[in-house]
Amino acid sequence: MIVEKQLDVPPVEPGVLVHRRKPLVLGTSLRQAAVFLLFLALVLSLQVASGAYHAEFSGYPDEPAHYVTSLMVHNYITNLKLVSPLQFAWDFYHHYPKVAFGHWPPFFYAVQAVWMMLFSPARASIRLELAFTTALLAYALFGEARRWFGWKAAVLAGMLMICLPLVQTYTDEEMAEMLLALLCFWSAIYFARYLDSERWQDNLAFGIFFSLAVLTKGNGWLLAFIPPAGLLLTRKLRLVMRPSFWASAPVIALACIPWQLMTMQVAERGWVGGSWPNLHYTTRALAQFLRIFIAIPGPVLSAFIGLGVIVTVLAPMLRKPVASGPAVMLALILGVWIFHSLVPAGVEDRKLLIAVPALILFLLAGAIWIADRLPFGNPLIKWRRALLAIAIALFFFIQTFAIPHFRHYGYTEAARFITSILPSRAETVLVSSKSGGEGLLVSEIAMDEPHPTRIIIRATKALADVDWSASRYRSLFTTPAEVMSYLDQQNVNLVVLDTFAPQNQFLHDDLLKQAVQQFPRMHLIATFHPLDAIAGQIQIFQRDNR
User: Fold this and answer.
1) Are residues 249 and 155 part of one domain?
2) Tell me, what's the pLDDT at 438?
């Protein structure tokens, strides 16, 4: 029997999930505060174990752009001079050419900019902000699970979610995924509340979090799947005729549609499966995402998730309306799956992160359903849920649990050498890399010097013509002499190169390496090696102006 364990909730029939109408807010009780602090401590411990506080923003190629863009927004907000936002952005990009405002919406950068104002732009501060977001998502999951299953199961739900390798990865990386997952989960919770209460205030809250999710990443549009699926499963199509149902529509339209129309062409540059949805991509993506869904918790826990969907949604829907919570959570999972299979932006596990809280809820539903039917007699009958929880934990730690390891390449030390040992304000630095090093150097220098003075030139922007995904490439130079002539014309003082395993084959990088070796005016002044066992090194060359 799956029932609410709170003392003020009366007994219910088997299979029914009970929800309070009052939405969960951050409680003031010591027990609720202790739960949040427990989640935060667990997140921080896993971050430290992964090496996230010492590694550069190297886990995913978008990380440096997210950091530099957030820093730019922070600087603009704190700038006391009245400057055009566009002019400020262009000037900042001229110094730190890793700004991606427009390719992604503004809310993530606004959140990080405010955090930087309250604390600092330092790496530890940014990692702590990501940890706080994950702990907040775990607390939101705890709140929803507490309504379904009670306190003990809810605490386990939050801890299990935090320990998932996928969640750990995007807690450690400077990415918008955790914030997006939090906003989508809050949005889903409030729509479930609306289905129960039919109050316009709950639907308005759904629209607000819907809008913030879209303004974090375009993936937030998947929340549009929730209302139709939720209404069908709960058999409340009559709500479409109520004014309260449309309370969220004006907010979403005004907040999201203008931005989407303005930036659609920019966002499409990151799509790898075509410029438009297509059947070939969708059929392939549906199968690939399904395999990733199973891999996230592991095969055994996935079986519990499937059972949870059956006992809370599929079985009840044959004879009566489905409870609002399970209906909306299944709609969220289906929305994540279908949306990312339709939009040809590539198949990646991070895109399923939004569905993880809902998966955990169904996992608990399936596990409790089995536990309550185990043929234990006294005195073990009261321990059957605990025994099954132990068994699930063992399967999880054997099959699924792992702590991701983030590597330190040495760009932190290279940037510190440039900004501290070579503090010339007139310096122009050119950085070239086949392995993502351009963004790492830009973000590390920006962290050391949040208010830019020196100019950094990225070789992929100056020496070549490369599209967003590096699928289209053309070198602008054909000989080392031409490259050296460009360095002279731009008065480049320093050239930063690396010899790490290439992710791309760039002719201009090869020409630049030949130039610094062939021309005697280029002098190797520093070499930096990774702290981890990574083959390669970072080299800094100085150009003699004579």
Assistant:
1) yes
2) 96
